[in-house]
């Protein structure tokens, strides 16, 4: 086990952490939907919009104090990006959702946090289009996952009335026993309505090492999106997929990759990803670029395979260099939950 970084505000592992993680895994397994043909949807971010080829570029202009690990020297890496919906298996034009950007790099040398690199030298980032996470600690994480899994089960069985009753009981419990209204925060988290996956801003929400400091990550389209592009939304069942592929047809796209150094362990806590570091004064530093080349999908079969290729992929934030180790309890949960769900799906993806 990698040493806890108490100097950065990382808390000791609690005695009941494994039990809480087991409960979260059980709740997520309940959320996993299975089709009649045996296909198992991801419990989180089930609908992907394709496995999009890209290049991850570390330029010569990285400030000297941040030339560490992946960013130690100028380099370029082949990459694949899976854009996704957070909860909906379809693009819902009547409301928002959270949207993901999972990035896999290839050919990255060096040991990984949990062992040797795989044969392809992969390294992963996972981001979402909201700056903060909606749960502040493991207890909130577990309680909210219990709520969602139970309500979804009743809805799938066609019992909307009972789902509403259970939802109401849980909400009263959450509001009474936790420091903030988890459900209200989660609703905001899931109310993003970008005009295209190519025009959204994505954040890591949780912190990571960057050598001896803690940072968060952010990916921003270049040029930066206008406010309307973040709220206009789309129409049609596959609206976001349509916009993504149309946006790459005959032209590419570029994103800047940023880190946000922790400057104060209280104002920029490790163990509460619900706290907005930007509002508390932490700056963003550009350290890389993501180039997506033009992509023209020939026909419906090619489009289907592009999406299926993304669905077959696995991403895990712990698939990274020791210099960029995930920090905090929520990130430890994600590691074990992702692995458990991957095993349950009998495939590579989570």
From TrEMBL:
SUPFAM superfamilies the record matches: Heme-dependent catalase-like
Domain of life: Bacteria
GO MF term (any one): heme binding
InterPro entries found in the cross-reference section: Catalase_sf
Protein name: Catalase family protein
Annotated source species: Ruegeria sp. PrR005
